[in-house]
Amino acid sequence: QVQLVESGGGLVQPGGSLRLSCAASGRGFADYGLAWYRQAPGKQRELVASITTIGNTDYTSSVKGRFTIFRDNAKNTVYLQMNSLKPEDTAVYYCNVVTLTANSYWGQGTQVTVSS
Fold this sequence. Notes:
Strands 2, 4, 5, 6, 9, 10 and 11 form a 7-stranded mixed beta sheet that branches. The chain has a 4-stranded antiparallel beta sheet with strand order 1-3-8-7, with no helix packed on it. It starts with a strand and ends with a strand. By secondary structure, it is mainly beta. The protein has strands at residues 4-7, 10-12, 18-24, 33-39, 46-51, 57-59, 67-72, 77-82, 91-98, 104-106, 110-114.
């Protein structure tokens, strides 16, 4: 069982920045596939960014060049640095891990609101 604790959400003006963090419990973090998803009101949850065990990253097109996903295996933590935020980035953001045994775990979600 992996427990995930997210932090870093909040209210920010358009053009601002936020950094989300997701800390995982237990061992084996370096072997996990990691990702951030988001869900806006009335919309389906979508994959925002992912990072493999060897650091390869992928992003949905709407955030490319603005968001960066990175991991610190020593701290069992994955981050999402979000720059140049837009109102359409407003959503609840969730971190997700997939273990070597293909078990998937979710964080509790953190609200990001981009508004003036």
